What does this fold into?
Amino acid sequence: MAKQSAKKFRKANPAVRKSLNWLWGRSGVFETLEVGRWRVYELFVTEEVLAQNKDFLAKQKANGVELEVMTSQKLTELAQTTDHQGIVARVSKYPYDTLENFEKTLVADHSALPVAAKPIAVLIDRVQDVFNFASLLRCCKHAGVGSVFVGEFCQCQVTTQVSRLSSGAVNHLSIVQSSDLLNTAKRLKELGLTLLAVDPASTQAIDHVGLNVPLGLLVGSDIHGLDANLMALCDQRVCIPSQNLPATNNPTANHQSTQMSPSVSAGIVLYEARRQQRIGV
It folds into this structure.
């Protein structure tokens, strides 16, 4: 049955193939296999890749992953790209985590983080640009974020394209899909997280706010910003002051900030939070 299924997918027309969950590239596919969170159904490789990774690929086959050798041209036809580097995988839909699991791990041992590090969760509201979303996930992984929460609607979802653009960050983050971000944010607050959002209208600079606490960072989209109800729920609203404004005698003017992309503003906040936690301020 498995071989018949594989044959069906290989012979599917281009429109059908394009709709499947294809992941390609040696680094991305191997990392997905090693982490083991995202299920891989089939592997298609060139003779060269098989020879260079014979033991590793044999292990995957023994674990139930179907393996087939193809020419590079056939892989290009299968994945509809020439960037496959000799390996293409068919994977399941992304396995989102649950809020219940987040609650269980919130009080768990965070030994992978510095001793002073506090739990950080990021809630993403209606970020639809795949590049911004992937960049956000890369920032979260780099900052040791515990969980990422995304909406079910009007939100870019985790796909194989996001996996590639995020340099595999999706394999290392607990990403929870929520049908009600407002209730999820309220629950994070009940669990003791301080909710914070970047608001260009705020006059409270990010480096003047204490972030050495369990933190829930709420991030809105480029187009819509953060939902008003989510913004109202925040304990802190901060700005990221521009460094290139001419000095004036108006302290409010000197605090002006510009609208930045979600990934850039989130990266700055996450870095500042970890900096404060590292030095214990």
In short: The first helix runs from residue 2 to 10. Strands lie at 22-24, 40-45, 66-69, 87-91, 120-124, 147-151, 174-178, 194-198, 215-219, 236-238.
